[in-house]
Amino acid sequence: MPFLPHGRDDVPQMLKKIGVRDFEDLLGNIPEALKRGVRLQLPEALSELEIQQEMQSLLAENRSCHQTVSFLGGGAYDHFIPKAVDFIASRPEFATAYTPYQAEVSQGTLQVMYEFQSMICALSGMDVSNASMYDAATAMAEAVLMARNITRKNTVLISAAAHPLYRQTLKTYAHAQNIRLITLPLKGLITDPAAIAEAPMEDTAAILIQSPNFFGCIEDTFALAGLAHAGQALCIQGVDPISLPLLKTPAEAGVDIIFGEGQSLGNHLNFGGPYLGLFATRKEYIRKMPGRIAGLSEDLEGKRAFVLTLQTREQHIRREKATSNICSNQALCALAATVYLALMGGSGLRRVAELCLQKAHYLYDKIIALPGYASVSDDPFFKEFAVRTPVAAAEIVEKAPAAGFFAGIDLGIFDPQRRDQLLIAVTEKRSRKEMDDFTEFLSRFK
What we know:
The protein is an alpha/beta fold. It has 2 domains: 65-81 and 345-442, Aspartate Aminotransferase, domain 1; 83-340, Aspartate Aminotransferase, domain 2, CATH 3.40.640. Helices cover 35% and strands 16% of the residues. The chain is built from 13 helices and 17 strands. The chain has helices at 10-18, 32-35, 48-59, 83-89, 92-95, 107-124, 136-151, 164-177, 221-230, 250-253, 331-368, 393-399, 432-442, and strands at 69-70, 128-129, 155-159, 180-184, 186-187, 190-191, 204-210, 234-239, 257-261, 277-281, 292-298, 304-311, 374-375, 384-388, 405-406, 409-410, 421-425. The strands form 5 sheets. Strands 2-10-9-8-7-3-4 form a 7-stranded mixed sheet, with helices on both faces. A 4-stranded antiparallel sheet has the order 13-14-17-16. Helix 4 (83-89) packs antiparallel against helix 11 and helix 11 crosses helix 13. The model has no long low-confidence stretch (mean pLDDT 91).
């Protein structure tokens, strides 16, 4: 907050009103062992002007992220965002809106939700979408819970190429729900379908994949969905929405539930959040889908009216009937995504996808031609790829900012056996000069 309004007399009155003696009483639930000896070493108080000068001095020591060329990915991507997106999303009627509990005074918010859902369905080919979720990780976990509720089976086969942090979130959810997770091994950098033949399909609720996966590679979704259905299980796919205009849609492949990260749709990187989760499914599973769905209806006068059609979260219905208690939609982020999609249109979004694909392959070819660098696999990829490096990838990542780059993700963070592998993402923002300069930087490592 830029201004704290509480004076010296206000705080004692507030504490008295809520029935405690001092601020320390508010921390009574924290064990003493954790509080003992913890004291903030704060400097002397400063005036507002002096604080501003001090903060500006500290900020001046930072290197602006706009001065650094980013090849980072792993679920958060540096895409171009038209200025109109921020302008429209920051209008007060949008920025202050929360939850449309009263439809008659929330038509604008409900219309945005409805249009967002419609665009996600158009992109993915799925029948129904909800009005967004927290992020891709929780959306993936909710997809697994939904599959379990549909099939009444307690095992899920999950690809080792799914995002490792998303899998950690799923592990937390699954542990509390007694869901058994079996990791499917990789062949190259995509899921090995042969491993499914050895899995206990009689108790398998779903096969879960990402395509493009964490390594940027494109899975054979048709084959994997077919194997899931042959075993009386559902197929869940994580998607990158930017890739959808170029690839066969999940619906065409026979996928039953999709989830994804919507950050790339007009939302800034924001140091990791807030983002928004995408979630869509087939029409027959609509009542098992978490979250909220905005629908289009008519009022008594025959005028168009937007309403909340389904509200399966515990804020709206009995807890035991709710599909989930953590499924709020990220309304403002979803608004930005809706504005972005409307501005780009089908042809614009396809052009973005084409540029990502072409530029990623340009840089990939440049890098693997360098001495000491090599491809990790020959699997097809979209805008992200892994390369083998002549030194530890962590060394490259550490030295890159001084040269003006965020070099990518050190895969050794997630798997020690991949410590010589670097995951690099290329979006439509990267110029040929930036990619050539980055290649020159990488050539320094032998």
